[in-house]
Design a protein that fits this description.
The structure holds 2 protein chains of 2 kinds.
Chain A lengths: L3 H33 L6 H27 L3 H34 L8 H23 L5 H28 L3 H40 L7
Helix pairs in contact in A: 1-2, 1-3, 1-4, 2-3, 3-6, 4-5, 4-6, 5-6
Chain B lengths: L1 E9 L2 E10 L5 E5 L6 H7 L10 E9 L2 E2 L7 H7 E4 L11 H11 L5 H14 L3 H4 L12 H13 L5 E5 L7 H14 L4 E5 L3 H7 L2 E6 L2 E7 H6 L4 H7 L5
Parallel strand pairs in B: 3-8, 3-9, 6-7, 7-8
Antiparallel strand pairs in B: 1-2, 1-4, 4-5, 9-10
Classes of the chains: A mainly alpha, B alpha/beta.
Amino acid sequence: MTKLLDLGIIRIHDLLKNMMSLAEITYVDAIEAYKKDDIIPKSSYKNSEKLRMLQEEITELATELIARYQPVATDLRFIKSSLEISYNISRFGRYSFDIVDLLQESGPLIDCDKSSVLEMSKTVMNIISICFNSILTQDTKKLEELYELENKVDIQYKKFLRDIIQNQKSLKNNFERRDSINCSLTSLLILRYLERISDHACSIADSVNYIKTGKSSPRL
Amino acid sequence: MKINNLNVGFNKKEVLKKINLDITAKKVTAFIGPSGCGKTTLIRCLNRMHEMTQGAYVKGDIFLDNTNIYDQKVNPITVKRRIGMVFQKPNPFPTMSIFDNVASGLKLNGVKDKALIQRIVKESLEGAALWEEVKNELNQPGISLSGGQQQRLCIARSLAMHPEVLLMDEPTSALDPIASAKIEDLIHELKKYLTIVIVTHNMQQAARVSDYTAFMYLGELIEFGKTKEIFENPKKELTERYLSGKFG
């Protein structure tokens, strides 16, 4: 006989799956829009909002399960972590929407060097994949790789920041600066959003580790 | 208290096997486990009540401070004075008043100073969070009180002997939720100056009131640790399965 608590936990699993799928689509759309420079996905805001609603639903359900069934052990750890995981996934959606929103403001970026952003976006996509896979399988084996990739993203972001500052200083006149500022600012902000996404992925990895081992972040 | 290699049974039936456990002073330790796992037997060993049953045997040591309470030189009555007990069903002496119920232990031990008895009765009822409710009816029969009040009267009766340890064998199982909550609040207050050991079938109660939890199964101590650890991250799969309601 299925326990009522188990039904609630299955429902949270389903909601998390929906969130992961939606967050991935929203992220891929945002990066494609940047890459191709001509497709601005209209669904980004809607997806981001939907992710927030799903997060709310998980919060409501998790609170109800704790209040009604006083879960313990693995059940408790999963329900507690689902609150944090859902919040972090919703942030993936929000930052992806921020990228699209920025592209609308910045206008065409045809002449910009996009290599740094695209390189980092691949690393972040890899991070997202490992992260979502760890949620689905509750497997902690690849989390170490995720933490290393996140570290790489941090280093890339800081390097790019230094390069931009250096580049702006070296430009000869205001005309050159005006032309480059749009590219630099857009790249910098997108890299910042990507860095934030990878940071949230690490928080998710911490939660998966906690569900599995009962211990807080292995990074601490 | 320290339990060392305790084996307990009745006649040829072994009920507890090789129990080793340290009970921390001025903390609440809960014994949990499915029916028949031996938790009540274990708590009854802690003040030598188990041996009062015909055919019962106890092997091993239980230390209170540095005294082995099973040492042949130790008087079991002294043990029961130092280690009080409250049972599942409130059991006030039916023919005695509220006052006399609390004073009974003192009188049995030869205390005759009326002023002293009155002071201890008041302190004990206050300690059991009952004084305000009964101070104007101390001469009424103990059994005239509600179930929850009777249980707190029994706690007051134990407190009057100034025990160092209080054993509680499912103290709220016969009480409604409000009365149970009062007992739980009381346990929280009492642990400031008493070591408390509680047997409970209610896992949420163990999670709420205890600092340490011991999970028992088929007469063995399966896992023991801080309550937060046991309920959030049990080490043994058997504990996890029991707590999650997979069996028991």
